[in-house]
Amino acid sequence: MKHVSELLSLLDLERLEVNLFRGESRSIGSPRVFGGQVMAQALSAAMRTVPDDRFVHSFHGYFVLPGDLNIPIIFEVDRIRDGGSFTTRAVKAIQNGKAIFHLTASFQLEQEGFDHQTEMPKVIPFDELVSYDGMAKQFGDQLPENIRRILSIARPIEFRPVEFLNPFANEVYEPVRNVWLKTKGDMPEDRRQNDLVLAYASDYNLLTTALFPHGKAIDHRNLQIASLDHAMWFHRPFRADEWLLYSIDSPSASGARGFTRGHIFNAEGKLVASVVQEGLMRKVRK
After folding, report:
1. Could you read off the pLDDT of 164-223 as tens digits, one per residue?
2. Catalytic: 219?
3. Of the residues 10, 46, 59, 133, which has the maximum number of CB atoms within 10 A of its CB?
4. Is 277 a catalytic residue?
């Protein structure tokens, strides 16, 4: 996908029944369905059953089984509750008769209340940094084949990492990462579309941050890495086609699992969303 319009088309599910939807998949270089895709599609299915004046404020998802790229995904929505201010939905993503992903999402009427936030970290501005696309061109054939393949994949999101990771050495880094991101192409005004795209993008750069202290920041060969669960909170409206800073850290790794969290700020320093994720991280058994 070279343009965000392709991603928006992927997230525009086919309605099969009142609470039943179908979606297709696109590869991002992995043999399985990208977690951010099925997560954003499940959220899209939930949105299709919620009144237009209510917006997602949080969702929690569990990745149950790897998704097959070659067959459609069916999304079944359970209308848990329609309250005075909040609406709750549960979504089950199904392939071959089995659930591959579960999502619970909560939507809210816009309401006024107390307002505060954590401060955005001081980092190098986006206009002074090179994108993943630029890094692929800069290093070219010097890069290991697996890294070159990942960097060369066409994405609907542009990423500009703040911290430089040496692609030629298995160095140890602090488990902290800051990445600027925005869509390739203009987004509609529709707030829900922007929420969906950010949900999709939030699955990038997150879990691998937990590998930084272990000399595996770049080279993931001989490792089994998979998202287990993912939660996201939407604090303030934003535009996904304007630069956003994804500030990520990993407080812990243990029991073959890595725990990561992220704050997403707009360029003016407003905190627009927060994310947490835990994932499987272990060496492949020979």
Report:
1. 887 666 788 999 999 999 999 999 999 999 999 999 999 999 999 999 999 887 777 788
2. no
3. 46
4. yes
Q: Is the pLDDT of residue 229 over 70?
A: yes
Active site residue 202: no
Of the candidates 223, 230, 232, 231, the residue with the CA atom closest to the CA atom of residue 256: 223
Beginning with the edge strand found earlier in the chain, give each strand of the sheet holding 176-183 in spatial order.
14-17, 20-23, 73-82, 86-95, 98-109, 54-63, 223-234, 271-283, 257-266, 244-254, 176-183, 157-161
Residue 146 has what pLDDT? 63
For all residues of the chain together, what is the average pLDDT?
93
Q: How far apart are CA 243 and CA 245, in angstroms?
A: 7
Which of 95, 106, 227, 274 is the catalytic position?
227
Tell me, what's the pLDDT at 171? 85
**pTM greater than 0.85:** yes
**Element at 134 (helix H, strand E):** helix 132-139
Which residue among the candidates 195, 203, 250, 274 is catalytic per the annotation?
Answer: 203
Q: Which helix (H) or strand (E) holds 194?
A: helix 191-201
Per the DSSP assignment, residues forming a β-bridge with 40 are none
Tens digits of residue pLDDT in 67-109: 999 999 999 999 999 999 999 999 999 999 999 999 999 999 9
Strand residues in the chain grouped as ranges (E): 14-17, 20-23, 54-63, 73-82, 86-95, 98-109, 157-161, 176-183, 223-234, 244-254, 257-266, 271-283
> Of 41, 131, 274, 277, which is the active-site residue?
277
Q: Which of 16, 58, 6 is nearest to 37 (CA)?
A: 6
